[in-house]
Amino acid sequence: MKHNLLTILLLICIGNVNAQNKDLTENAIITSNETEMRVYTADGVLHVNISPKDVTGFKAAGYVRYSSLGAKGDGKTDDMDAIAATHVIANRYGLKVKADDNATYYIGGKARTAIILTDTDWGKATFILDDTEVQNRNASVFMVGSTLRPFKLQGVGSLKKGQKKISAALPGPCLVTVVNSAVKQYIRFGLNQNNGSSQTDIVAVDKDGNIDRNAPVIWDFDHITDITALPIDEKVLNITGGRFITIANKDESKYNYYARNIAIKRSNVVVDGIEHRTRGEEDHGAPYGGFIHISDCAYVTVKNTVLTGHRTYTTIGTAGKPVQMGTYELTVDRAINVSFINCTQTNSIDDATYWGVLGSNFSKNLLYDHCILSRFDAHQGVANATIRNSTLGHMGINAIGCGTLLIENSTVRARSFVNLRSDYGSAWQGNVIIRNCVFVPAGGKPAVATLIGGSNSGQHDFGYVCYMPENIMVDNLRIDDSAHPDKYNGPAIFANFNPDMKDASYQEKFPYVITKQVTLKNVTTTSGKTLRVSDNLFEFKDVTVAVKN
Asked: CA-based Rg of the chain, rounded to a whole angstrom?
């Protein structure tokens, strides 16, 4: 019939494994008739009318543009509904999405998320994200999702560290998240103290349940309260281009994080060539949870990307004292094999006015390669991390976790070459390898040079045994300590991790396991002073330091 009306309810559900498992849902009603194309919202639901002729044209082209669904791109008209509708149509018919290179898409504060399930080319288009009046600060602007649904694994009651296989029926390769809510770990110490997080691990398995040996199980789970499998998309989804400008929020400076971002919740994604800048930050504002937020997925690469550090604001922490709030450009949560390649930032990596760009939790195999960024951070743990051919700024390398931390062909401009986060026990169970690097303490300001920083009094229960790196291997390191302070005794391998531990009378309630061996080869200093062990010779008296030619 000429004016036959076909109504389709398109329900795209993307599982959020972390939640555990709260679905993020985008509702859209698509109608198809021969009247003009129309996009509108009614009762919070997006309505899209598209003619069969238009559908035929889009299929022939292989893509759909934002302007095809009514986006003005004039920098003034709110184009969010048109953008979301474009992705609804592209997802429905398996089409790519393209932006117009000369367009400036204004995105206001409406609580609408555009779900990306197909390749998207933002080209040279500009997107203005206005965060000054936002309906829902937790609503991402774009979410890269999957049509594959998470499901509960049955019959798996426990899991052991290093276990090689999970015995379960799987439809194909999956990302498996394991939780034991009866065990608390990462019980934070300090100004942001808390009661910890439920014991959590994430592994990649093949269709037969074999666990990726490069991302092993790192905890013993004597009991499992939740185990969820999320099928891994095997085809790569590509997102390219795009110039984004965030007009910063003016909210109260407290921990009400804004998630007006690009959220990636799908495995096998490549993000190439995004630029993000922030405008309008003032003397107060709420923090950001990451403009690119990668979670519950594996095999994600972000490359050739320009980022902007957010201004640091202060609030009152859980200990009742002022504390600086972390605010991020990049966030990685419960993800495996995430790479940042050739990424830079617009503001100075040495400017402490801006917080460090990266924060991560419960992840494995993180990589920086050819990056110039203010910070690398493993917050609630990473298993294996690599930093190569990169320069790290004022917040440097912050690491909590296990496995191998490899830093090579890189420059670090922080107070310590590696900082083992004291709020999580300065714990790294594994090895640290430093090769062909340069260390500029405090970016060239007067400072005592320390290779490994951190602290642990042995009096706080973090929910796990705290280890220092078992072995630290340094090969070809130049320490530029020319701007040292007065009465400088030379650089130290270790900071004074526990000033109260002066002799054998000190008793630790929760013993801190100290490094066994440090191997040094070709370590030079600008000051000419020799690298020493620590200001606390008693604490590190049993460390073997081997100097090789």
From this structure: 25
* Dihedral in degrees, nearest 10, Cα atoms 518, 419, 479, 513: -20
Element (H, E) at 400: none
Q: For the chain, which residues make up each domain, given as ranges?
A: 6-130, 151-231
Residue 132 CB coordination number (10 Å): 12
Q: 178 forms bridges with which residues in the sheet?
A: 201, 227
Is the distance from CB of 441 to CB of 479 less than 8 angstroms? Answer: yes
Q: How many CA atoms lie within 13 A of 25 on its CB side?
A: 10
Measured CA to CA, the distance from residue 256 to residue 188 in angstroms comes to 19
Are the C-beta atoms of residues 396 and 412 closer than 8 Å to each other? yes
- Among 371, 374, 379, CA closest to 335: 379
Q: How far apart are CA 431 and CA 452, in angstroms?
A: 12
Question: Do 279 and 245 form a contact (C-beta atoms < 8 A)?
Answer: yes
Q: Is 490 left (phi over 0), alpha (psi -120 to 50) or beta?
A: left
Q: Which two tokens stand for residue 47?
A: 């309505």
Tell me what the mean pLDDT of segment 144-154 comes to: 95
Q: What is the largest CA-CA distance in the chain?
A: 91
Which is it for the CA torsion 483, 486, 490, 494, positive or negative? Answer: negative
Measured CA to CA, the distance from residue 223 to residue 178 in angstroms comes to 10
Structure tokens given for 246: 């965030």
**For the segment 246-270, what is each residue's pLDDT rounded down to a tens digit?**
999 999 999 999 999 999 999 999 9
What band does 36 get if pLDDT is binned at 50, 70 and 90?
confident
Q: Give dist(CA 254, CA 245) in Å, integer.
A: 23
Are 61 and 78 a contacting pair, CB within 8 Å?
no
Tell me which residue has tokens 């990636």: 264
